[in-house]
Amino acid sequence: MSGTTIYEFDVLAADAPGVSDTVGLRSVPPQVFAWLESQALSLAEVGEIAWLRLSQRRGRWAVQVASFVGVIRAPDGYQIEVLPKVAKAIGGGDDEARELLIEMLRCLGGFRHIQTDSAQLVATRMPLLEVFIGEFLRAVEHLVKRGLRSDYNPQQDNLFALRGKLQMATHLRRNLCRRDRFFAEFDEFSPDRPENRLLHAALRRALAWTTSQTHQQLARELCFVFAEVPASQHPSADFQRVRLDRGMAHYDGALAWARLILEDKSPLTGAGGHRAPSLLFPMEAVFEAFVAKHLARQLGQGLTLRTQARSLSLVRHLEKDWFRLKPDLLVQASKVNRLVLDTKWKLIDSQQATGSEKYGLDQGDFYQLHAYGQNYLDGDGDVVLIYPKTDVFNKALPVFKFPKSSGLRLWVLPFCLRDKRLLLPPCGSLGALFLNAQ
């Protein structure tokens, strides 16, 4: 299956003479660009999250992928793999970027089931969509080895022998002249239950998507195991009926993948009437989850990390709280706030301190952190902005101070994606909160 690999914020244009030589443009087949263009226009019209934007480059219509990573799959099967931009900034290639993304996705709640070894991904150069399909198939294979769960399902039928409870009214109406029949209601012990129907439907879709012979063979074998189970025709309704009761823990991983495959919640998908999966993930959320998981291990004893705290508001109006203050991360000791942190998926340059550049920092982020510090720390303590570490941002910036808040300090710190740790300033008040502070 044809496709291409790009990075966040790369620009795509329809393949035409001279496009491949145009700086900053990546070419895709004309029919794929037409589909992408329709997606961008649809997103702009309905006001949804703009993972794709329409623009112009050197007189050509183009589309730009925003801060999302993953896989875009056009209706004709053409795949566009979108990798994290920071991989280029730290000197990695496509394989290293793909490995980094898989490692970061493991920190998202819905993708904690990823088991593929990163070294294996680099060796096989497996596209992301095939990685996701492979993970789903392995989860179902593990489930099958543990055994499919059956359940008692109520049935009604006109039987030759009485079974269960005779439905007298219906029996008399249908069998008045047929004394050899009994219309009865009974329970049938069958694997036809919502969980198995959903897995069967997801297997069929995965079989249609994959181009890997290994995955195709495994998908067919697993579909054969589910042959007695009808594929779900109404996934949303069946997901509401799912019951992971005792003895069903081994269904958890497979159903998590099935939900992504069947409901196109991954967490975004292109609009339209076709079944084109687009497994796209906002990098802000991925980076936040990655930092939260590994930063918790770096904290000192007695400290805990909360994510998305929402206990305070910016103002009160008409006896109601307005404008919730939701820092990404909040460090507490015995429920006392000690540190407020916000993650930003953006590349900054520690060498651009003069002029209008100001390292590439956003003034709005400073206003936001100031509000967090005033409300969560009573204006006395440390607030932190966390950015990914790169070659041009590999150590903490000098501390920022607020003139009217003498006790509030703001730090801009790099988080090393490879070492999975926050790089702290060589001196200051932050060292007491972390283990092995440098």
UniProtKB/TrEMBL annotation:
It comes from the Bacteria. InterPro entries: McrC. PANTHER family: PROTEIN MCRC, TYPE IV METHYL-DIRECTED RESTRICTION ENZYME ECOKMCRBC. This is McrBC 5-methylcytosine restriction system component family protein.
